[in-house]
């Protein structure tokens, strides 16, 4: 019904009708239509309800920069209807509606507005009770607040990230940006040109300009292979050293440019008067975009508010599109009559000078504009095109360091140049007409090229035209009854801002936070200048003194998917992963690693874990310990280096011996442990815990960057795999394998290490063990680990060897009271609290943390890690992190707990008060169900307290 | 994103690096008073001006030093740790 004939409608393809629904009703648009233009073509002007008063809202800018057109798609909320194209069968619904878009039950709030003054939230929701906010107000506001709905069942979408490098990035492909990009590329620079619109041209595509101009630029651009064009691409921020995110659909280009030219244009400003938010009142650029891009007639009977040539061009366009323009109101008085104004007079349109729009009125329920008041008299119309004022698109320049100023003579916002290699061109730089913008683009290109050291021939940077932009006036006609909106997103009116000042908020940043002006989806694009003017007037300051609020990235909304990218989590598998799967292991993630939790069916896990534990205690088991951190230290100072880093003595450690290592931080807290095997005078093989090895490796190099000892550190974690053969029959299994190593009790005693070959695989073997049984840990190059695993499994058959998983391993170590760093230690655990005094050298002059543990020892020890043994018939069993109480005060917590099949009862490790840490003391533990239980302390290993089995 | 010039790997995005904080004084642990030792551990200077910091290039695990202006966030220069002793 509102569709214009061709050639109007550059974006639409009339041969391809596209059906879709809005609020359940069927509509049809053309391929290339946005949701808003297709609806407007069918006479549907109301797109949403406003945030606070639930007033009907429609098209404002057609740039996707305001909250008026936010709609809900099936899998995506808060979509800008004026930027998002329609697609076959798309189901669109309105947001922030209680009931239907046409009949919104909350529209009543519009009449209660005087009870909702600015800062209402801050005053009201404090009471009446302390929990009123959480219990009452917050849920109520959530229901009323105009937010889209996230569908958690939305299908997975593919998001993508890529890197982009260029000499010069030009943001904005309007006349200035196009000329800048072409000039830079013609001089040989590698140029990227991006624009958020689907086509190049900017205002050349919708403004009243000679089409030959764009055609010429377009053909020059296509001839340049070193100019990459990204349309439909938003530049969403400026970060240090010219790093800019360019977002094209679901792809993020992380862009690094040597120089940047910002030709981001300017933002048209709404005028302020009573009911200035009615559907049917739109910016001049929106009317022009509807006509030229989509072939949609924006109204039947129009009034135009114009303060310059742009406004007169809008009126001429409307006349040409068959709209009856009843009046052009121009707040300026007198002055020269421009060409466009003359043309308009020639076509018989009435022009009234020194006149502005004083108020507007809507049809029933304010669903559409019905008349406007100019000079005291009402004029009927269904369209008001506002072409009154504009501000430079300041967001990107300000992020790059530009400062906002205000030219009081012309009444316009200005931008200073940023310090970084960044140039401004076009209307963002204050170029006020097409010719200036074209020259400005060229000037910016020359400046950028010179900055990059390009020869630019005879050309010099031409100077900026000195003539300022013509004086403009943004009419602010406040009304005693309000509804004169400054910020449409938040339904803020002139008096709200004046009241904010009256409340004592003079500074613009505080006015913003108190009133929420500029916090909505448009981020002050349509309200910042008006706010500055209102606050300036209310505080008797100039607009320049008041300024505008800080602009931070992102420039516009961005989907989380774009930021997340592929989101394929990193995972590591040991070289034996396939072996575990073949044995039907239940695999579980441990940090980035996947480890066998138990072998067998998950449904029978409990029994299988018990069998695995008993196999280790009574026969022999095999554990994949490849995830252990493995470091090799080489150099004449390797021993001295370990002496400084760990608490035990390593410099005097004999070759072929293994020692426990305990690492502290400077604060004296335990941060890691492992073992060190001296393989030669100048060579140690050191293990670290799975989760900490990356940090330990970094710390080693950090310390040595300061100590500068003669030692090299290699991280062999992935390169080497580890197999732990453990249990009373471990020796028999290894002796059944072909090897040059003597595994005999005397030849290879506990805490020693050997190098050799087992079943044809070169290995490093250490007699250590977490399980407390006779254990050999075999480390070999990862590529040979499957062969070694197979050989051990085969040799073990006769002895009933069983591979065991992580859960059995955890229980086996708990039965021995062995700690897990990070699980049984926290940020302040000292060696004394673990009973590890034996592991701390008293003789060494220095090690990291030495001074601090001495100081902390003087402060006195408050707690100790001990064992707790629950009776076999205990009913209440606590969980990890359950509190240990002394009186009513918490003094510690359970750190590890589990059922021991070997002992037939539940056992735990826990921090208890130092006075309760002796064998047999009873401590009180609070269970998850709130019950208190008294448990006896066990001050030694639960199983084999004499540690005889591991030394067999 | 800021660019940091690693003395070994050249200019790289700063998200390849990990900051290890300013180079601190190294009081003698055997002679320093307890209060001074605590201050050494827990109190950072953080004064306006130029600071020398430890940085790590994570992929190569290489540690080096950088002079940075805390007011402007400008990195003035980066250099290998071996130059540190020579300087002081």
From TrEMBL, chain A:
Task: Identify the SUPFAM superfamilies for this entry.
Answer: Aminomethyltransferase beta-barrel domain, FAD/NAD(P)-binding domain, Folate-binding domain
Provide a Gene Ontology MF annotation, just one.
methyltransferase activity
> Tell me, which GO biological process terms does this entry list?
methylation
Keyword terms, alphabetized? Methyltransferase, Oxidoreductase, Transferase
* Pfam families per UniProt: FAD_oxidored, Fer2_4, GCV_T, GCV_T_C, SO_alpha_A3
Q: Which residues form the SoxA A3 domain?
A: 481-565
List each copy of the GCVT N-terminal domain by range: 576-844
Q: Which residues form the Aminomethyltransferase C-terminal domain?
A: 863-944
Family according to the record:
Belongs to the GcvT family.
Q: What is this protein called?
A: Aminomethyltransferase
Q: Which organism is it from?
A: Mesorhizobium sanjuanii
Q: Upper taxonomic classification of the species?
A: Bacteria, Pseudomonadati, Pseudomonadota, Alphaproteobacteria, Hyphomicrobiales
Automatic annotation (TrEMBL), chain B:
Native species: Mesorhizobium sanjuanii
InterPro entries, A to Z: SoxD, SoxD_sf
One GO term under biological process is: tetrahydrofolate metabolic process
Q: Which Pfam families match?
A: SoxD (PF04267)
Could you identify this protein by its name?
Answer: Sarcosine oxidase subunit delta
GO terms for MF: sarcosine oxidase activity
Phylogenetic placement of the source organism: Bacteria, Pseudomonadati, Pseudomonadota, Alphaproteobacteria, Hyphomicrobiales
């Amino acid at each position: 019904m509102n569709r214009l004939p061709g050639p109007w409608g550059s974006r639409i393809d009339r041969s391809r009708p596209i059906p879709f629904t809005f609020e359940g009703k069927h509509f049809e648009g053309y391929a290339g239509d946005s949701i808003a233009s297709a609806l407007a073509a069918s006479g549907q002007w109301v797109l949403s309800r406003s945030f606070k008063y639930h007033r009907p809202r429609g098209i404002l800018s057609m740039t996707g920069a305001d909250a008026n057109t936010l709609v809900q798609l099936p899998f995506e909320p808060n979509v800008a209807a004026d930027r998002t194209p329609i697609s076959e069968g798309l189901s669109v619904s309105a947001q922030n509606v209680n009931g239907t878009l046409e009949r919104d039950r909350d529209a009543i709030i519009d009449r209660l507005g005087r009870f909702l003054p600015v800062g209402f939230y801050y005053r009201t929701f404090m009471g009446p009770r302390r929990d009123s906010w959480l219990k009452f107000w917050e849920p109520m506001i959530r229901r009323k607040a105009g937010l889209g709905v996230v569908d958690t069942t939305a299908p997975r979408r593919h998001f993508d990230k890529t890197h982009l490098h260029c000499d010069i990035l030009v943001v904005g492909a309007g006349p200035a940006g196009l000329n800048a990009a072409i000039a830079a590329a013609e001089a040989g620079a590698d140029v990227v040109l991006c624009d958020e619109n689907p086509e190049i041209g900017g205002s050349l595509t919708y403004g009243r300009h000679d089409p030959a101009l764009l055609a010429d630029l377009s053909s020059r651009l296509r001839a340049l292979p070193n100019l990459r064009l990204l349309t439909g691409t938003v530049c969403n921020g400026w970060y240090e050293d010219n790093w800019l995110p360019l977002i094209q659909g679901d792809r993020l280009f992380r862009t690094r440019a040597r120089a940047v030219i910002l030709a981001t244009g300017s933002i048209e400003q709404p005028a302020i008067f009573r009911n200035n938010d009615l559907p049917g009142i739109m910016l001049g650029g929106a009317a022009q975009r509807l006509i030229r891009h989509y072939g949609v007639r924006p109204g039947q009977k129009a009034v135009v508010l114009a303060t310059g040539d742009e406004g007169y061009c809008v009126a001429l366009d409307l006349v040409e599109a068959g709209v009856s323009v009843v009046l052009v109101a121009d707040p300026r008085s007198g002055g020269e009559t421009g060409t466009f104004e003359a043309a308009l007079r020639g076509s018989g349109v009435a022009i009234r000078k020194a006149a502005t729009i004083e108020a507007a009125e809507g049809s029933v329920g304010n669903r559409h504009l019905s008349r406007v008041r100019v000079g005291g008299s009402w004029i009927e119309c269904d369209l008001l095109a506002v072409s009154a004022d504009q501000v430079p698109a300041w967001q990107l320049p300000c992020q790059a360091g530009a400062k906002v100023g205000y030219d009081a003579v012309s009444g316009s916002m200005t931008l200073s140049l940023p310090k970084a290699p960044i140039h401004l061109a076009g209307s963002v730089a204050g170029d006020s007409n097409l010719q200036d913008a074209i020259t400005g683009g060229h000037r910016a290109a020359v400046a950028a090229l010179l900055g990059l050291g390009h020869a630019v021939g005879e050309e010099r940077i031409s100077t900026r035209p000195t003539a300022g932009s013509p004086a403009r006036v943004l009419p602010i006609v406040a009304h005693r009854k309000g509804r004169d909106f400054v910020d449409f997103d938040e339904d803020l009116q002139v008096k709200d801002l004046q009241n904010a000042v009256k409340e004592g908020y003079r500074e613009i940043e505080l006015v913003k936070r108190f009133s929420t002006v500029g916090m909505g989806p448009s981020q002050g694009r349509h309200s910042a200048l008006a706010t500055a003017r209102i606050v300036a007037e209310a505080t008797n300051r100039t607009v320049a003194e008041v300024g505008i609020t800080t602009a931070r990235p992102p420039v516009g909304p961005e989907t989380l998917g774009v930021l997340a990218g592929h989101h394929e989590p990193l995972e590591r598998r040991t070289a034996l992963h396939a072996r575990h799967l073949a044995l039907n292991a239940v695999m579980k993630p441990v940090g980035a690693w996947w480890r066998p939790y138990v072998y067998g069916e998950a449904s029978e896990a409990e029994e299988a874990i018990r069998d695995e534990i008993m196999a280790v205690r009574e026969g022999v088991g095999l554990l994949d310990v490849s995830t252990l951190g493995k470091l090799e230290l080489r150099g004449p100072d390797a021993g001295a280096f370990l002496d400084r880093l760990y608490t035990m003595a390593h410099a005097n450690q004999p070759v072929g011996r293994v020692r426990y290592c305990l690492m502290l931080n400077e604060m004296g807290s335990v941060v890691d442990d492992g073992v060190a095997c001296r393989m030669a005078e100048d060579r140690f093989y050191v293990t670290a815990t799975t989760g900490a090895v990356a940090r330990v490796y970094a710390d080693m190099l950090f310390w040595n960057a300061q100590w500068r000892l003669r030692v090299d550190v290699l991280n062999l974690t992935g390169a080497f795999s580890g197999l732990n053969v453990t249990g009373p029959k471990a020796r028999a299994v290894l002796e059944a394998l072909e090897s040059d190593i003597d595994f005999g009790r005397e030849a290879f005693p506990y805490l020693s290490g050997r190098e050799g070959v087992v079943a044809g695989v070169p290995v490093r073997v250490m007699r250590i063990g977490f399980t407390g049984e006779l254990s050999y840990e075999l480390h070999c190059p990862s590529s040979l680990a499957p062969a070694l695993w197979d050989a051990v499994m085969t040799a073990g058959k006769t002895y009933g060897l069983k591979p065991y998983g992580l859960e059995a391993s955890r229980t086996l170590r708990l039965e021995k009271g062995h700690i897990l760093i990070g699980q049984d230690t926290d940020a302040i655990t000292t060696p004394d609290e673990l009973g590890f005094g034996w592991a701390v050298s008293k003789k060494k002059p220095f090690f990291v943390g030495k001074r601090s543990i001495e100081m902390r020892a003087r402060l006195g020890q408050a707690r100790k890690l001990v064992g707790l043994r629950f009776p076999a018939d205990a009913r209440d069993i606590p969980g990890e992190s359950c509190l240990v109480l002394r009186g009513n005060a918490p003094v510690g917590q359970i750190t590890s707990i589990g059922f021991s099949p070997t002992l037939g009862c539940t056992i735990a490790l826990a921090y208890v008060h130092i006075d309760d840490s002796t064998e047999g003391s009873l401590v009180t533990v609070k269970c998850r169900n709130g019950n208190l239980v008294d448990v006896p302390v066990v001050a030694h290993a639960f199983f084999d307290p004499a540690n005889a089995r591991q030394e067999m | 994103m800021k660019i940091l010039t690693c003395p070994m790997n050249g200019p790289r995005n700063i998200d390849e690096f990990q900051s290890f904080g300013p180079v601190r004084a190294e009081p003698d642990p055997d002679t320093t008073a307890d209060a001074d030792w605590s201050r050494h551990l827990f109190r950072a200077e953080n004064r306006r001006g130029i600071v020398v910091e430890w940085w790590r290039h994570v992929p190569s695990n290489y540690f080096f030093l950088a002079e940075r202006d805390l007011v402007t966030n400008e990195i003035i220069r980066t250099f290998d740790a071996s130059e540190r002793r020579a300087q002081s």
